[in-house]
Amino acid sequence: MTQQAKITIEDVTKVFYKRGSSVTAVQNISTEIQDGEFVCLIGPSGCGKTTLLKILAGLEKPSTGQYSILQTDKSKPLQSMVFQEKGVLPWLTVEENVAFGLVMQKLPKAYIKERTDYYLEKVGLTEFSKRYPKELSGGMKQRVSIARAFVNDPEILLMDEPFAALDEQNKYILQEELLNIWMETKKTVLFITHSIDEALMLSDRILLMSAQPGQIVVDKKIDMPRPRHVEQIRSDRDVAKQFVDIWQHLQTEVQRSRTHVT
User: Fold this and answer.
1) Are residues 32 and 9 in contact, defined by beta-carbon separation less than 8 angstroms?
2) Rg (CA), the chain
C-alpha cells in the first residue's frame, strides 16, 4: 500500500472572469507532494504559479478539479504562506510579528515566548526583537516572515518568491537559513521561484510549468545530497546540465507565450 501524499492536486483548473471575458490561469493541474518534501515551482511569468498557491492556501477556489491536504494534527494550523515582504505588520515589533499567530491561538504566554525566542535565534534576529519593521532591511523583514511561518508549526508551508527582492548575498544567506530550519523540522514546502539556481539549491523536486494556461509539463527529481551550498550549485557539472535543461524549457515557454499573445 502506497503512502498517502501530503498534498494531492487532481485536475485543478482556475478560470477568472472579468468584464465579459475569461482567463484560464491554470489548467488540469495534477500532482502529489509527499510529507516532508521541498518542492519548487518554476514557470514563465503569468503562468498561474501564485494562483495555484492561493488555491492551496484557501484564498481562491478552483473552478474545476479538487485538492486535499492530509492533516495529521488538528491542533496545528493547516498551512502558512510567505510572500515577498508583504507579511510583516508595521505596527508590531519583530518579536510581536513572529508571535502573532501563536497569540491569535491564545496559547500560554510562556510557550509563546519560548517558541518565539527559539526562532528569533534561528534566523539571527534576537538582538532586533524590539525593533519595528521600518528599522529593518528587506532581508531582515523576510527573516521575520520565515520565523513567523515556522513558529506556527503548520502542516505545510507555501512560499511565493520570498527572496525575489533581495540582493544576491542576502538571498544566499536566507536560502541556507531556510534549509537549515527545514532540515530540522521537515515541513512540507511548496516554493515558487523564478531562479533556477534557487530551485536547484532548495528542492527535492522541481515542477516546471507551461506558459498560460499553466500546466505542469515536467516533474524533475533533484538527487543532490544535502546539505547543499552555493559553491556546489555553481561548480558541479551535473547541476550545470540540469540548469541548462530547465533554462531551455523556460526559454521555449516564454517564446510560446509571446507568440500566443501576439
Assistant:
1) yes
2) 19
Residue written as cell 502529489? 32
Question: What tens digit of pLDDT does each residue of 212-260 get?
Answer: 899 999 999 998 888 887 777 778 888 888 888 889 888 888 787 676 5
Q: Which cell numbers in the block locate residue 103?
A: 497569540
Q: How many CB atoms lie within 10 A of CB 40?
A: 25
Read off the pLDDT of residues 64-112 as tens digits, 9 standing for 90 and up. Answer: 999 999 998 888 888 888 877 667 899 999 999 999 999 998 999 999 9
How many CB atoms lie under 10 A from the CB of residue 235?
A: 10
Contacts of 44 (CB under 8 A, 6+ apart): 209, 210, 211, 212, 250, 253, 254, 257
How many angstroms separate the CA atoms of 42 and 202, rounded?
A: 13
Instruction: Report pTM.
Output: 0.90
